[in-house]
């Protein structure tokens, strides 16, 4: 009797497992299959579960998405929505050298009230842009406890051959171990010194958390240093105007400085960001743009230098320089790479941690003419692995 009971229980268990497997198989086999319910549960900080509900995307947003095309080509996409209009661009996350502007494929299209999207993809060629593909799919969000995370999935369709590949993207979010990322915007101006300054800075939010306070203070000091230099230059120009008898009734346009940033990678241990300083001073042929990276160790409460990533006496500059020069020489827009990417620390002031490698940003004029814009080199971790500090920030990426 006991044996029969055991046999029955085993049969029921196997039958239940079979039904569950069939459900999973059905959903995977049909890309258009709709889940039986439009909500699910997911882990939430703490012991409780947060229920996620599918919601429509906001009518206005500007967000970064990350994910893959065809489950293997990693991409990073920025999208901006204004009602039915959807614009942006994306690039493939991979190692090598790139012209920053030409690397990005531009996107333009429409989104309806139900979240159905059609985006046309074009190359960055001012004189002769080419349509190369189209993204068709659904853009919506998952809401849990009032927080909405956007997602975008569907099919990428090649323009030339009609090839179709699935894509799946999620809004870029960072797990900072209880801290949250915010933003602080400020404006200042001086009629006497004829300048205007606009700044945007990342801010860590965490009540009473010393890590947040230290990070915010370090960011403020970095931006203030650049703003201070700009103010000095503006004051000098104002003195020259006064000496030349500049008519106060018809003053020239003010000098301007705009500071923006992008968070490249972040987690509970570090934040890797890049700042862009766009400056215009009277008498200049055109506005100047420069970048500066800001890499911060949350555990030690201090900025990280490039040397901190590598073992002592590892000759890391030569390793990074050799790879950069070799890859940049493949680009038509990079024309003086030997000096601009040579093994000097000032050539590598803008570096960031990415999932695929160490990204170096070369400013305008550094390895090419102003018209070519910025260039980037992503050095794969496989190249750096022999010299990466075992307990440094890159160790986890080089495994």
Describe this structure in words.
- With 399 residues, the chain is α+β, with helices and mostly antiparallel strands.
- The protein has two domains: 50-171, Beta Barrel (Lipocalin), CATH 2.40.128; 180-245 and 252-398, 2-Layer Sandwich (Heat Shock Protein 90), CATH 3.30.565.40.
- The protein is built from six helices and 20 strands.
- It has helices spanning 2-29, 100-103, 210-243, 316-328, 337-340, 381-384, and strands at 39-43, 49-56, 60-69, 73-82, 85-92, 96-99, 105-111, 116-122, 131-144, 147-158, 164-171, 180-190, 195-205, 255-266, 270-280, 288-297, 302-303, 351-353, 357-362, 375-380.
- The strands form three sheets. Strands 3-4-5-7-8-9-10-11 form an eight-stranded antiparallel barrel. Strands 12-13-14-15-16-17 form a six-stranded mixed sheet, covered by helices on one side.
- It is globular, with a radius of gyration of 26 Å.
- The N and C termini lie far apart (55 Å).
Offer a concise description of the structure.
With about 400 residues, the protein is an alpha+beta fold.
- The assigned structural class equals alpha+beta
Largest sheet: 8 strands, antiparallel, barrel
- Intertermini distance: 55 Å
Sum up the overall morphology in one term: globular
The appropriate CATH architecture of the largest domain is 2-Layer Sandwich
What amount of the residues lies in strands?
A: 35-45%
Structural domain count: 2
CATH topology (level 3) name of the largest domain: Heat Shock Protein 90
Number of strands: 20
Average predicted local confidence, pLDDT: 86
CATH first level of the largest domain: which class? Alpha Beta
Strand order, largest beta sheet: 3-4-5-7-8-9-10-11
Unreliable residue runs? 1-47
CATH superfamily of the largest domain: Fervidobacterium nodosum Rt17-B1 like
Provide the gyration radius in Å. 26 Å
Order of helices and strands: HEEEEEEHEEEEEEEHEEEEHHEEEH
- The percentage helix is 10-25%
Total count of helical runs of at least 4 residues: 6
